[in-house]
Amino acid sequence: MEFLPGGGVRTEPLVCPPGTLRRLHSSMLLFFTGKQRSAPSVLTAQRAAILDGRAVEPLVALRDLAYELRDALTSGEDLQVGDIMHRGWELKRSLAEGISNAEVDRLYAAARANGVSGGKLLGAGGGGFLLILAPVNIMRASAKS
Fold first, then answer.
1. 59-85 CB burial, b ≥16 within 10 A, e <16
2. Sheet holding 129-133, edge to edge
């Protein structure tokens, strides 16, 4: 989906080479952080950062990452998705206070230290669900131990 100036939306299906989405899905893990936060409070802080210009540069970079993600998926380069997600998460965290917190940062750092290629909080941030991408060989090794 591409959001156009003036409020229009353009949709285009992503056609991925065979096996790309299967490989990607097999590397995804979803965890509940144990914390919930009111999305409106996080989104209000983010909106203020957009209006005063602090968040514009990270938002442009996030848009560019979306195109990079599209290109990686349509080229069958699913191994690039974790890195793109990691860079996106770093950018999202910079948008406004409250998008992350010490506990989420600790969980994400521990995941990265154990081989996770990338991840992000789903939704506005502040808690909820953490989606991470772990190479299949790491998940298999964890399952054996």
1. eeebeebeebbeebbeeeebebbbebb
2. 28-32, 129-133, 118-121
Q: How many CA atoms lie within 13 A of 70 on its CB side?
A: 12
- Indicate the domain borders of the chain: 21-144
Nearest CA-CA partner of 39 in 108, 104, 95, 122: 122
* Enclosing H/E stretch for 132: strand 129-133
What fold is seen in the domain 21-144?
Alpha-Beta Plaits (3.30.70)
Q: What is the pTM for the complete model shown?
A: 0.86
**Dist CA 59 CA 21 (whole Å):** 26
Query: Are 107 and 54 spatial neighbours (Cβ–Cβ below 8 Å)?
Result: no
Nearest CA among 35, 63, 61, 51 for reference residue 124: 35
For 82-131, what is each residue's pLDDT tens digit?
999 999 999 999 998 888 989 999 999 999 999 999 999 998 888 899 99
